[in-house]
């Protein structure tokens, strides 16, 4: 069976570019809910002005996300990836729709009760994020690097699109009665439709693409059980013919061995997101002061981060800009921490132009380094090992994001009326 797959040339299979487009859309869907929440942050600051929405909601989101990915990473070899991803996308769709229902039910009024319900919905975002992002990156790690690069780029596209939509809706409704609320609700409705599209694409389109069937069949031949349901959805029913012999299964590295072999990759991903989430979104909403852009300032900063994050995720497509040297990646990741004093002094003494530049650098380096690591790390492993490693990489991304969110509260030290 292994020889049969090795004799095929996957680049000649039909559906590679279609798969890249679908992966990008699925990437958008895996993060559009969270980015929607960030992008309507100005509205939630109006409704819940005393509760630090950008910081608290981010901090609520992360424990659910980390707890879920820890369980999935430990049991990844026994989990039905198809059900896992579909449940995640369906939960995304339902949760973001519930944000609209909550606002309609409360008529846009704040208070501790609605805020607790909002936090509960955000917790479901965390569960769905870990389910989808870990499942998709683990699944795409079985395939060619272009597909995982497209998915990860889709995460940034989600941010860029949500920022663009939010700026458009804010501009369209700014001068109307209750305009901020109307813009936020239309924006959330658009996000709900995007999530529903992802459910349909993953359920009915993605598993039937030839290149996807090829790589999943190859993974099954190497002993991966997580792809069986997806192969059945693609019309490949005889799963017993796709299993490898017991010897090849026994050679699979366990999670501890995979971590030891990739310790620099997982630590680098952890540090990338510690820095990014310690600044975004709380610092940008609460610590950058008042400038000429007024209520647009935080939205513009978030938009600049998202757009440059997107650019960074496509930079590795240029070969000489694709950093593959492991020591070089570590140096680049550590160098990013120079942005901490840069942000501090710019917020204190600089003008909005310098802040926009720093946010752009933060986004560019975040996207670039993330793609370099996620595309390089799975190379040379068998199908089951790639899936396991993909889940572990996402675990450290989410853990870094959680630690970054916690450290983000330190920016409030010394600030009047911070708490």
Give structural notes.
By secondary structure, the chain is mostly helical. 74% of the residues lie in helices and 0% in strands. It has helices at 2-6, 16-39, 41-47, 53-74, 81-106, 112-140, 145-173, 179-205, 210-221, 228-233, 246-250, 255-261, 263-279, 282-286, 297-314, 326-335, 339-349, 352-376, 383-408. Helix 2 (16-39) runs parallel beside helix 7 (145-173), helix 7 packs antiparallel against helix 15 (297-314) and helix 13 runs antiparallel to helix 18 (352-376). Mean pLDDT is 84; it is low at 1-9 and 240-249.
How many beta strands in the DSSP annotation? 0
Structural category: mainly alpha
- Tell me roughly what share of residues is in helical segments: over 70%
Q: What low-confidence regions span 5 or more consecutive residues with pLDDT below 50? A: 1-9, 240-249
Largest sheet: none
Radius of gyration: 21 Å
Which strand-content bin applies to the residues? under 5%
Overall pLDDT confidence: 84
What is the number of helices?
Answer: 19
In one word, what is the shape?
Answer: globular
- Name the helix and strand elements from N-terminus to C-terminus, one letter apiece: HHHHHHHHHHHHHHHHHHH
N-end to C-end Cα span = 62 Å
Task: Give a topology summary.
Layout: H1 2-6, H2 16-39, H3 41-47, H4 53-74, H5 81-106, H6 112-140, H7 145-173, H8 179-205, H9 210-221, H10 228-233, H11 246-250, H12 255-261, H13 263-279, H14 282-286, H15 297-314, H16 326-335, H17 339-349, H18 352-376, H19 383-408
């Amino acid at each position: 069976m292994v020889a049969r797959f090795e004799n095929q040339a996957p680049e000649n299979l039909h559906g590679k570019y279609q798969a890249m487009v679908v992966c990008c859309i699925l990437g958008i869907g895996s993060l559009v809910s969270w980015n929607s929440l960030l992008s309507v942050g100005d509205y939630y600051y109006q409704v819940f002005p005393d509760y630090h929405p950008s910081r608290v909601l981010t901090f609520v989101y992360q424990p659910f996300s980390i707890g879920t990915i820890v369980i999935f990473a430990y049991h990844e070899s026994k989990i039905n990836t198809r059900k896992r991803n579909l449940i995640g996308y369906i939960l995304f769709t339902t949760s973001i729709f519930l944000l609209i229902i909550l606002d309609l039910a409360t008529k846009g009024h704040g208070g501790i009760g609605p805020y607790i319900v909002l936090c509960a919905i955000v917790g479901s975002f965390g569960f769905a994020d870990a389910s989808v992002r870990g499942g998709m990156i683990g699944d795409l790690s079985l395939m060619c690097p272009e597909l995982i690069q497209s998915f990860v780029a889709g995460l940034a596209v989600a941010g860029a699109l949500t920022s663009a939509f939010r700026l458009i809706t804010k501009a369209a409704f700014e001068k109307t009665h209750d305009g901020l609320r109307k813009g936020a609700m239309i924006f959330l409705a658009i996000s709900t439709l995007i999530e529903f599209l992802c459910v349909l694409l993953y359920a009915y389109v993605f598993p039937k693409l030839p290149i996807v069937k090829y790589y999943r069949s190859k993974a099954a031949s190497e002993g991966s059980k997580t792809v069986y349901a997806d192969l059945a959805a693609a019309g490949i029913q005889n799963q017993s013919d796709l299993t490898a012999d017991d010897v090849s299964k026994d050679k699979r590295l366990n999670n501890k061995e995979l971590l030891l072999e990739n310790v620099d990759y997982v630590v680098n991903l952890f540090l990338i997101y510690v820095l990014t989430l310690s600044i975004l979104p709380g610092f940008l909403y609460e610590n950058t002061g008042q400038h000429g852009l007024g209520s647009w300032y935080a939205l513009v900063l978030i938009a600049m981060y998202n757009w440059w994050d997107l650019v960074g995720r496509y930079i590795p497509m240029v070969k000489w800009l694709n950093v593959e040297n492991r020591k070089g990646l570590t140096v680049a990741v550590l160098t990013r921490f120079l942005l901490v004093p840069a942000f501090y002094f710019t917020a204190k003494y600089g003008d909005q132009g310098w802040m926009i530049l720093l946010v752009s650098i933060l986004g560019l380096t975040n996207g670039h380094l993330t793609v370099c690591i996620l595309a390089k790390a799975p190379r040379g492993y068998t199908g089951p090992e790639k899936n396991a490693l993909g889940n572990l990489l996402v675990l450290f991304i989410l853990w870094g994001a959680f630690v970054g969110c916690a450290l983000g509260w330190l920016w409030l030290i010394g600030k009047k009326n911070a708490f």
